[in-house]
Design brief:
Blueprint (H helix, E strand, L loop, with lengths): L1 H10 L6 E5 L6 H17 L6 E4 L11 H9 L15 H6 L3 E6 L14 E6 L12 E4 L5 H12 L6 H14 L12 H13 L6 H12 L7 H7 L1 E6 L2 E8 L3 H5 L4 H12 L3 E9 L5 E8 L3 H13 L7 E4 L6 E6 L6 H18 L15 H10 L39 H9 L5 H8 L2
Helix pairs in contact: 2-5, 2-6, 3-8, 5-6, 6-7, 12-13, 12-14, 13-14
Amino acid sequence: MEDYLQGCRAALQESRPIHVVLGNEACDLDSMVSALALAFYLAKTTEAEEVFVPVLNIKRSELPLRGDNVFFLQKTHIPESLLIFRDEIDLHALQQAGQLTLILVDHHVLPNDAALEEAVAEALDHRPIDQKHCPPCHVSVELVGSCATLVAERILQRAPEILDRQTAALLHGAIILDCVNMDLKIGKATLKDNQYVEKLEALFPDLPNRNDIFDSLQKAKFDVSGLTTEQMLRKDQKTISRQGTKVAISAIYMDLEAFLQRSGLIADLHAFCQAHSYDALVAMTIFFNTYNEPVRQLAVFCPHAALRVTVCGVLERSHSPSLKLTPAPSIHPNLQAYLQGNTQVSRKKLLPLLQEALSAYFDSTNIPSGQPETEGVSREQVGKELDRAGNSLIPGLSQDEEEPPLPPTPMNSLVDECPLDQGLPKFSAEVIFEKCSQISLSESTTASRSKK
């Protein structure tokens, strides 16, 4: 693998057609490993003199935000200097010159790169197909716990002789982390995930012990000490958009109460949204309480009154899935916080609801995006749209009532019921609920609930 990556960087200096294996925008461990291993496989098995280069879909400066990636690269002896990042290759220029072919791995849509869709030749993913935004190419999807499982399957079925220990260690660690150490109680690992972890271990008996690699990766993954608010928001973030309105969804690995008490938080949230042209920000916090039970909390920050009311209304009224939200104390009129009673609703399952909220927003108001409202907007104003939208998902997106529980996806592998490092703040869910029960709800929330 290391020799191959050295050749990739040299190939970029040549003016020739190039096949780019592009991971997703979160660039979590699963995405990074899948891009590296798939590109390695394609380069080793293609007879023609074609160049296959893995590209990590973030700026190089953002890699330190992904502690597990940094740790694992060091663990597997892959120098960061050999990696190629999104800000080090001009994909649009290559496409315009007719020299780009894209292979997507660990995702199959390009929400922020629609202009590159024509260059996509193949996509390999482990999430339900988004029919509405899927590129016109061969898309291979299988609902397994880790995309690295699908890459391992392709290598071991078609060219097992190319697999070296370094590449096997990368795949092995990524699968174990994404599948929560193959824990049957969590239920994220499928039969295929288990099968390929066992095959890798049989081929390379000296691979690290599962518990050891899982514990060390998870500790690195959930370490947010020393991060600024912006870095915490960017650490594991997704973006959705419609008609120019953009919503960021970030995973935060700490108790919501502690997050809301960060010094200068509101100013930081404003600055973050303004810097990246986001109209709203949804933060999902997750930690495990003293009983080792997952606690999920939500915070919706949005200066646009109508958009904020619509998003909150859709989330509150949703029944498929039901989030069982309880409003929590807030620190600012533009921020609504919630305790999430249904801990099974991960960020992946939240995304279709937020897409539907954008649809409801544009159905209920013609207010141009980018112009925050200064006057209050009643929930009655958008109630009809919310009743219609809150329980019906966009065609092509996952519907929980029609599907079995899905394994964690690359963009939210940190969010989907992964046990957190025990060193992070602990706060009993019972205490939170007790505190919240003593605080009166806001007028808008009371009005909303009185109509249900």
